[in-house]
Design goal:
Helices cover about 25% and strands about 20% of the residues. With about 750 residues, the protein is α/β, with parallel strands linked by helices. A hairpin with a 2-residue loop joins strand 4 and strand 5. The structure holds ligand MGD (2 copies), iron/sulfur cluster and molybdenum atom.
Length: about 750
């Protein structure tokens, strides 16, 4: 009999070890502080290059989502190093520091080791170790029970990362298309929708920005250099070395700002005013590409009229950027056009009017004529590999959309916060979620308003977390399934668009450690238990990959030798090369005036809206990245942890003085709702405006099982208890939270 939990307690202690389970590798027995038996595993040592000849295995990095291809070097089955694959257009043979430290994901002894099932011992909730058979049977039974009672649509999948492919497939086969990821409504959703509305196409990933040929790069918050998306950084560095003008708009003196001709330390939340003022200057001074605008765009006259009053003098008190600087930078952009990129950004869910802000940048790019031009935005070549032949999926009867009939009409993907909210009590439209499968996403860290996430979890009949690490989400799960790391598994092919389209293979370099399994195996085993065998007709993963590869004239054997394959399809990238751009918009043109937005009652041309500024004694909490970490997924990585064991809160020198805080002091941050952070070290600096503080995201873990990362630094997400939701597509603006300090003596 399985126990039904009405209230899930957060389990952060080690599970009850059942010793005798079939686990790979030798085991030792130890007793943890709470007296429970815990299985201890010997550390894996790195190989020394003098120990023998290296074996090379192709891989695709999973430390972030850029998907660089590389080679794992191992000696006698022990890891030595990972380097980039020279033939990969997405890495050019070089990995970023995080990718190089990827071996740490394999080495980490804090990894999840065996399936865990929530249980109660002495009235207290804890985990007990289980075999894969028992854990998968348990999940399948619960899923079927939910499907019988509420419908299969009432199970949602939250997923981020490559192994998620198989779980998406499983969900479709099961009859639910309620699949979501925080990389849409918490990341680049507004950007994709803004460009789709304007150009009929999104920016995509990897971004189609022709940075390496750009003569002028405008970065609005995009902190390339700290944001380490590999080829973007490489191309940005090349452009800087070639003398390109960089204009960085950031309330913080970022690494990119330090490479810039102009740093515009804008008052946060006012970027739209600056963008509108730039558009104003470009039109007023006739700096736009008249021929391009005439040929490819619609709505110029309406735009001209709409921005009439948005003068640099109007923008000055709002943004704190001087009119002369606004004019000068606008002229500089036009001077280099069309080789000017107003970077569309990536994590753009800031203030709730994000689609409109990004659209203002898209309009600016159109005026400069940079879409489809060298040094602007190229037209990527798409890669295509036929799918493995599967039977047709059943048609789901309900979708998350029904719960939001009049909201977020232009969301093209599902919104993770929406699915979360549909799990809260009282939601009667469509279906209320009763089960969550969570693959590779630490929702407590990456979905804002964590208080709601915890509340939603309490309403579930089943929460399954499939993860590599004992991330916070696993502490709330009924069943935890340990996936092996990317270095121990095959995954589906990496298929990427780009200047040249390419595919890449990830093959296992090592046997899975502990009792962990690859995602494809877990999804398939679950599928079989759910009676969905016909959707998993492949014999094994090798046969699956080989079948797909054979359809494009390659094979698994070839890919194991090469790692990367460049596909043939190659059309012109730029108008200069003969490209004839098409725009999949209602007018067939670039829509400076958006007919779609108008038809839904939104502003067809962006209009400035004001946002709340911090109250007296409070500071806006902004956040970002650091070169050697990815979100919260690397904070416990034994190699990367050493480079930066905790985050710091950046505080302006004057403000620190006001609060009696010295550089290196520990403080607690308290937000407008009284939520307190872990203690965090103060970095007192002139590099940030007085009205804001800055944190690198991904620190402040509360799960004790993450031994290195536990309580090191502060978790920005815990302080994001308020969001401003973008009415156009449901993105959660997360930078409207304000904090004050408490000193720790
Ligand atoms: N507060 C706040 N929230 C944010 C952001 C922010 O900056 N601040 N950024 C937003 C952005 S831009 C994005 S894209 C999203 C990212 O959101 P997520 O992708 O959810 O990011 P992570 O927190 O790194 O969660 C990744 C989880 O995957 C696990 N994992 C790592 N490797 C593997 C693997 O091989 N297999 C499996 N099964 N699991 C693995 C990690 O242990 C971790 O628990 O977050 C968004 N949310
Ligand atoms: N090393 C590393 N690199 C990464 C990641 C990672 O985890 N680690 N994650 C990747 C992912 S998924 C994404 S989406 C990207 C995100 O990377 P970006 O898209 O570059 O990030 P943002 O979070 O939009 O921007 C952070 C910057 O915005 C500034 N900022 C804050 N508020 C404002 C404001 O109101 N106006 C302006 N103009 N600037 C402001 C901050 O000071 C900071 O410098 O990074 C990617 N690259
Ligand atoms: S950018 Fe770095 S972490 Fe991301 S996939 Fe490439 S090498 Fe890995
Ligand atoms: Mo992101």
């Amino acid at each position: 009999m399985s126990i039904e939990f009405t209230r899930r307690e957060f389990i952060k202690i080690s599970g009850l070890g059942l010793g005798g389970l079939a686990a790979g590798g030798a085991m030792l027995h130890a007793f943890s502080g709470n007296g429970q038996q815990e299985t201890a595993y010997p550390e894996v040592a790195l190989a020394d290059f003098s120990e023998g000849t290296a074996t090379l295995t192709p891989t695709v990095c999973e430390i972030c989502f850029w998907q660089c291809a590389g080679w794992v070097h191992s000696i006698n089955g022990k890891p030595w190093k990972i380097i980039g694959n020279k033939n990969d257009p997405n890495s050019n043979g070089r990995l970023c520091p995080r990718g190089t430290g990827g071996i740490g994901a394999y080495l980490d002894n804090d990894r999840l080791k065996t399936p865990l099932i929530r249980t109660v011992v002495d009235g207290k909730q804890t985990f007990r170790e289980a075999s894969w058979e028992e854990a998968l049977d348990f999940i399948a039974r619960r899923m079927q029970k939910i499907a019988r009672k509420y419908g299969p649509e009432c199970i949602a999948l939250f997923t981020h990362g490559s192994g998620g492919t198989y779980f998406k497939h499983l969900m479709h086969a099961f009859g639910s298309n309620n699949i979501t990821a925080p990389s849409y409504a918490q990341c680049r959703g507004p950007r994709e929708e803004a460009y789709l509305l304007t150009y009929g196409e999104g920016v995509g990933s990897p971004e189609r920005t022709d940075l390496r040929s750009a003569k002028c790069i405008v970065l609005i918050g995009s902190h390339i250099g700290e944001n380490m998306h590999n080829t973007q950084v490489q191309e940005f560095a090349d452009a800087v070395a070639a003398g390109s003008t960089v204009i960085t708009v950031d309330p913080r003196y970022s690494v990119a700002a330090s490479k810039s001709k102009y740093w515009l330390p804008i008052r946060p939340a006012t970027d739209l005013a600056l963008l509108l003022a730039w558009i104003h200057v470009i039109i007023e001074e006739k700096l736009y590409d008249a021929e391009y605008v005439e040929k490819y765009t619609t709505g110029f006259e309406e735009l001209k009229e709409a921005v009439q009053d948005y003068t640099p003098e109007w923008a000055y008190p709002i943004t704190t950027i001087k009119p002369s600087v606004i004019r000068e930078t606008a002229r500089e952009m036009a001077w280099h056009a069309p080789a000017t990129i107003v970077h569309p950004g990536r994590h753009v869910t800031w203030y709730g009017d994000d689609t409109q802000r990004v659209r203002a940048g898209a309009i600016l790019n159109a005026l400069l004529g940079s879409w489809g031009r060298r040094g602007g935005f190229y037209f990527p070549n798409k890669a295509y590999v036929p799918k493995y032949p599967y039977p047709k999926y059943p048609k789901p009867r309900h979708s998350w959309r029904e719960a939001f009939p009049d909201q977020y009409p232009l969301a093209n993907l599902s919104i993770a916060n929406g699915l979360r909210d549909m799990t809260l009590p009282g939601n009667k439209k469509g279906c209320q979620f009763k089960g969550w499968l969570v693959y590779g996403t630490n929702l407590l860290f990456t979905l804002p308003e964590p208080q709601k996430t915890i509340e939603a979890i309490q309403n579930l009949d089943l929460l399954v977390a499939i993860d590599l690490m004992p991330a916070e989400i696993t502490g709330y799960a009924d069943v935890v399934l340990p996936e092996c790391s990317y270095l121990e598994r095959y995954d589906d092919l990496r298929i990427l668009p780009g200047r040249v389209p390419s595919i890449a293979l990830r093959a296992p370099a090592f046997e899975p450690r502990f009792n962990s399994k690859p995602g494809w195996w877990i999804a398939r085993e679950l599928g079989i238990r759910l009676g969905l065998q016909k959707y998993f007709p492949w014999k094994n993963i090798e046969e699956y990959l080989d079948t797909r590869l054979k359809k494009i004239g390659s094979s698994l054997k070839e890919m194991k030798e090469k790692g990367v394959l460049i596909l043939d399809e190659q059309a012109p990238l730029y108008i200069e090369e003969g490209l004839e751009p098409e725009f999949d918009t209602p007018s067939g043109k670039i829509e400076l005036y958006s007919s779609i937005l108008e038809s839904y009652g939104f502003d067809p041309i962006p209009r400035y809206t004001e946002h709340e500024q911090p109250p007296q004694g409070y500071y806006r909490m902004i956040y970002g990245r650091t070169p050697t970490h990815t979100f919260g997924r690397t904070s416990n990585n034994p190699i990367l942890h050493e480079t930066m064991p905790e985050n710091e809160v950046w505080i302006n020198t004057r403000i620190a003085k006001l609060h009696g805080i010295r550089n290196g002091d520990y403080v607690v941050l308290i937000n407008q709702d009284g939520v307190r952070s872990n203690k965090v070290k103060a970095k007192v600096t002139e590099r940030i405006r007085h009205d804001s503080v800055y944190l690198v995201h991904g620190f402040g873990h509360t799960d004790k099982r993450l031994k290195r990362a536990h309580l090191r630094g502060a978790n920005d997400n815990a302080l994001i208890t308020q969001v401003a939701v973008d009415p156009i597509m449901g993105g959660t603006g997360m930078r409207g939270n304000f904090v004050t300090f408490e000193r720790i003596s």
